[in-house]
Amino acid sequence: MITLLFRYRAIILIALHCVLVAAGFTLAFLLRFEWVIPAGFLKTYIWTLPALVIVRLLAFAYFRLYQGWWRYVGMRDLYDLLKAVAASSIVFVAILLFARFEPGVPRSVLVLEPMLTVGLIGGVRFALRAIREKRRPQSSPGVRRVLIIGAGDAGELLLREMHNNSRLRYAPIGFVDDDERKVGFRIHGVAVLGTTSRLLEVLVDHPADELIIAIPSAKRDQMQAIVNRCLESRLPFKIIPAIAALTDGQVHMSEVRPVRIEDLLGREPVQFDATQIRADIAGRRILITGAGGSIGSELARQIAAYGPASIVLLERGENALYLIEQELRRKYGTLNVRPVVTDIRDREDVASLFREIRPEIVYHAAAFKHVPMMESHIAHAVHNNVFGTFNVAGAAAEYGAKFVLISTDKAVVPSNVMGATKRLAEKIVLSLNLKAHSHFVAVRFGNVLGSNGSVVPLFQEQIADGGPVTVTHPDTTRYFMTIPEAVQLVLQASVLEEARDKIVMLEMGEPMKIVDLARNLIRLSGREPDLDIPIVFTGLRPGEKLHEQLTSDFEETIPTRYEKIRVVKTELPESIDRGLSLLWDAVESREERVILRRLQEVVPEFSPQAALLASLRERMGTSDSRARNRSAG
Q1: pTM listed for this prediction
Q2: Which of 211, 226, 259 is the last residue of a domain?
């Protein structure tokens, strides 16, 4: 029976519409003449009824009223019905004026009939939906009772999908919302049971199996409070991430996932001009250095979506390079992707590659970034971050390519070698602007969550091992953003005309305490900090600051038309050619004390920490002692 109904569904719908249109027209005549139609008007009724039915059915077909499932009817369907009835009414009146029936159809009938038709068709549709929802099982085996946190647009869309898709096996029992004025209201028949602050009390009276957070616009403090209450409930909880609500203005159950640490940042989704970015990238030859790293690989993913002519992935590590190459080939089979294993420190290799591929845009993400490690590998840090950048940027200038440097907040008043090398890389880019006719820009931002070797994966490993979680200092703070957000902003900043030949700073929001980050990760794992997983403070590591800053006292920022992108107004560097030459001589000598001194000369704002200087003296003392022993032997 069900199979037959499905097979002849369109015929059944058309027949039902015929009956309802005829019923509306008939009822309009009966109401006009108080249930007794005069003989003359009865003839008019009989002659005009088929014309009205045909016109209405054609309009319904044009507006695709037969294609939707009635059990999924919503406001959009009602709007389409109103348009179809209005359009067909105009055509029907035109037919009456042309045919000149005597007597004519009464004007009151022409007014009543469309309203009755909309009421009958809309009423039947909504009644079928109501019956279906009433019959939906609330406590059947496998059906999970869910409470939705957030009675806004995202929550309403989730509720609608739960109602329309029985395979999801969700039974929504209610909403909670921050807005007290919504309490008591119903959304598609489901009540707003209370405020989010009273979540635990609501759950006492309305037991649930699961919670879903549907507030994509929540700020950090608001989201933190909601997550804390969800954790107190001891129920499983999930979230609609903010980025999901921006993709097409819709949210879907397929996007619901467990809460991640980035959800607690409370950062608003990036609003960016995809058309402008596409115009810059589409059909262009792209080179990405450090393409196997966290930022480099995400650059490759996002750039590939804009249709470049080719992407050359430059990376020293073959394994990381292989992974991103294979990912791009799977997703963009026709895209010209070329992996290149080379080292940016090799000037000849870099020059040869540029001669061959002649890139039009270069995104320079290759860098040594681990602060404590670079404190004990000064020569390598300078060679890679300074002279590697010099090689790539110089080649970009020679071939007229746009050059985008990925910088860091650690370049601001640097207190460690890594930060000083990145600050010098910024100066190299600014100095090349004075000599070249290319477009150079340096993009400066803070930490990204989940990057290779960052604190989040480390904490997650420590939690999985049962602890302890090691934090350097209880007051340490850092700026954070997600990797996709950082790359979206890099791409947007790179096409801003006001950012041309400048340092650009990404808005990082408020800094977060690292210890709070650790506590949140422990709670999200289902355990309690200090009770289940201890937190141990180990002291600041070599080169680390308690707090990072995004600009120095000698810099100011200028807003752009994008809220999260600001141009850093800074003095153009004096010629650094001699300083770089002396620094290169020091790198070749491998004398770390000399390298450090030369680095300070060309980056005068660099203040090495006492621990680094003491470590250098100790290493040099050990080296001198070994040399004397060899001489004595």
Answers
A1: 0.69
A2: 259
